[in-house]
Write a structure and sequence with these properties.
By secondary structure, the protein is an alpha+beta fold.
Length: about 190
């Protein structure tokens, strides 16, 4: 057996420390920068002459949801994943938003991106998330909607046109957002 003594022990630990730092430098840097990388999103008016992409996804019980089912309602389409901290942060705000607008023609579809049904079911039970969750395990809908970051959300008017998009989390239950959604709801009622 070989034993390290005195300076040999110190040199050994310094060498191990340096190897660790070199091996994990990118991860450590990302962790240090994480608070600046995770920024809240902002609702941006969406101007695209292309039609709203199709959407037909199943929920965890196997029921298919299509955009046409929600005509006449303002719809929030939210792409998220269970490993995404900003996605998790906005989940309670989405539920409070739905609660504030419960008597209005408004619906939220939370679309999980890239995860398997059991994992999504287990996660939503763990965090007690009660909104409709659709599954996009192959990321087909996510990509067809032109999304590349999570969370990404789209706010559609009652005719199914995308009116706003946000990349990143948002304070969904803020008075500003609630007022904007109510304005979209009132557009339909005034037409």
């Amino acid at each position: 057996r070989r034993y390290c003594r005195g300076t040999e022990t110190i040199q050994f630990f310094i060498a191990m420390y340096n190897r660790f730092i070199l091996k994990h430098a990118a991860t450590l840097l990302a962790l240090l920068l994480l608070p600046w990388l995770i920024q809240a999103g902002e609702l941006q008016p969406f101007s695209n002459d292309l039609p709203t992409p199709a959407l037909a996804l199943q929920d965890s019980s196997g029921k298919t949801h299509e955009l046409g089912h929600y005509r006449g309602q303002v719809l929030l389409v939210n792409f998220w994943a269970s490993w995404c901290p900003p996605c998790i942060k906005e989940m309670p705000m989405l539920e409070r938003l739905k609660q504030k607008l419960q008597d209005q023609p408004f619906e939220i579809l939370a679309i999980n991106v890239g995860e398997q049904k059991y994992r999504v079911w287990k996660f939503t039970k763990l965090v007690d998330f009660k909104l409709p969750v659709l599954l996009d395990p192959g990321k087909v809908a996510f990509e067809s909607w032109g999304s590349s970051v999570l969370p990404t959300s789209f706010l559609l008017d009652s005719k199914g046109r995308i009116r706003y998009r946000v990349q990143g989390d948002l304070e969904w239950d803020s008075e500003e957002v609630v007022s904007l959604i109510e304005a979209l709801i009132n557009e339909e009622e005034n037409e």
